[in-house]
Amino acid sequence: MASFSVVTNIASSNAQANLYSTQNGLKTALTRVSSGFRINYSGDDAAGLAVANSFRATVAILNQGVRNANDGLSDLQIKDGALDNISKLLDRAATLATQAASASTSDQSRATLDAEYQEIIGEVDREAAVAGLDGVTAFSVFVSADGADGKVGGSIGQADAATLGLAGDLLSAANAETAVGAITNATTGAIKVLGDVQGDVGALQNRLSYAISLAQSQIVNTKAAESRIRDANIAEESANLTRYSILNQSGIAALAQANASTSAVLALLQ
Predict the structure, then answer these.
(1) 20 to 30 Å CA-CA from 219: which of 11, 43, 61, 86?
(2) CATH value of 46-229 in 1.20.1330.10, 3.40.50.720, 3.40.50.970, 3.30.460.10
(3) Mean pLDDT along residues 176-202
(4) What kind and span of H or E run contains 58?
(5) H or E segment at 213?
(6) Phi and psi, residue 132, nearest 5°
(7) pLDDT (tens digit per residue) in 72-129
């Protein structure tokens, strides 16, 4: 049996409760559509927010890792350029030594050849020092937060004159022959030693290039994973916005009708 009361308006209370829920939904839809994010407050999805923040931190680390790797490549390119110059200097040193080793070369000519040869040795030392090749170098680049696997590293041999075996003089044919052998020996010559150092640099350059490619792929995929958690589905939220807008209007109309029903009860007292 229906109850008629002017003290408690159950219909109005129900309409108010439904309208409160509708307005919360409308507020959420408006916030998501305007911000573009599904998660705007921790309460929206606390667990999802923690995972999304973890993905965002990973992306930040990877972005810096790519910059680190590019800086590492720049350093290796400096070393590579110096090694190329040293290689050309070795070509010239071998040419001078070969000329000095000939019996037809006079002592005066050998003195001239030796003067240039000594300058080449000095220049090799200078360029090795400038490029950081005057000692064995430990090379390491931090690319990602994966422990030891997140680093690209190795060692680069030295390429100074002493290590390459450039020494002595060209003041005699015998000394010149020794210099030629020191440069061209297949196992211990300067050209072989320099080639090993160039191999160290080249291998690290290739590794860094692959590491950059992988990191960029990880950045894209991690951003996609974060987006699926954090970003709003605009099509869905637009539909929610329309639905809650209609419900809000109908709820207000229903509340007005519920409030009006109380005044209708007063007619029984007339």
Answers:
(1) 43
(2) 1.20.1330.10
(3) 94
(4) helix 46-101
(5) helix 190-230
(6) 75, 30
(7) 999 999 999 999 999 999 999 999 999 999 999 999 999 999 999 999 999 999 999 9
pTM of the model: 0.79
User: What's the CA gap between 54 and 192, in Å, rounded?
Assistant: 49
Lookup: tokens for 224: 């996609």
CA 233 – CA 122 distance, rounded (Å): 67
Among 59, 64, 60, 58, residue whose Cα is nearest residue 141? 64
Amino acid identity, position 64: Q
Alpha-carbon distance values, 22 to 34, 148, 172 (Å): 18, 53, 101
Q: What is the pLDDT of residue 81?
A: 96
Tell me which residue of 90, 77, 85 sits closest to 192, measured CA to CA: 90
At a CB cut-off of 8 Å and minimum separation 6, what does 198 contact? 80, 83, 87
Read off the pLDDT band of 5 (50, 70, 90).
low
Take residue 146 and report the two structure tokens written for it.
Answer: 């994966």
